[in-house]
Amino acid sequence: MDTQFIRDRITQLRLQKGVSEYRMSYDLGHSRSYVYNISSGKALPPLSEFLSICDYFGVTPQEFFDEGMKHPALIQTAVEEMKKLNEEDLLLIVSNIRRLLKDY
């Protein structure tokens, strides 16, 4: 894993969220070129700002670095919603997930 992964992952998550570089920069409280500078390789965020970026996308740092997780924010939302369900409904969801995976 290298700095290019961090840049690419921020871009991937930003596009999934449907926000521009400018909008994300503004939302994080920075100048309009802040995210562009990260994406283009001119800068990397310090640790405290990286944690803010993770919060912005609704992902944990672990989910951010999980290369196999294509939609971490969506998965996190699903997990949070499933925590509210009873055991019977959770078993139904697990069964449906397994059925869907057989088709792939």
Description:
The structure is a single chain. With 104 residues, this protein is mostly helical. It has one domain: 434 Repressor (Amino-terminal Domain), CATH 1.10.260. It contains seven helices and no strands. The longest helix is centred in the last third of the chain and has 16 residues, at 87-102. The radius of gyration is 17 Å and the shape is elongated.
Roughly how many Å is the radius of gyration?
17 Å
- Give the low-pLDDT segments: none
CATH architecture call = Orthogonal Bundle
**For this structure, what is the CATH class?**
Mainly Alpha
Q: Looking at the chains present, what oligomeric state does this protein adopt? A: single chain
Helix-strand pattern: HHHHHHH
- Annotated CATH topology: 434 Repressor (Amino-terminal Domain)
Termini separation: 28 Å
Number of domains: 1
Biggest sheet architecture: none
CATH superfamily: lambda repressor-like DNA-binding domains
Give the helix proportion (percent range).
55-70%
Strand element count: 0
Mean pLDDT score: 91
Strand content: under 5%
Shape: elongated
Tell me the structural class: mainly alpha
Number of helices: 7
Question: Can you summarize this structure?
Answer:
With 104 residues, the chain is mainly alpha-helical. The protein has helices spanning 3-17, 21-27, 34-39, 47-57, 61-65, 72-82, 87-102. The protein has one domain (3-102): Orthogonal Bundle (434 Repressor (Amino-terminal Domain)), CATH 1.10.260.40.
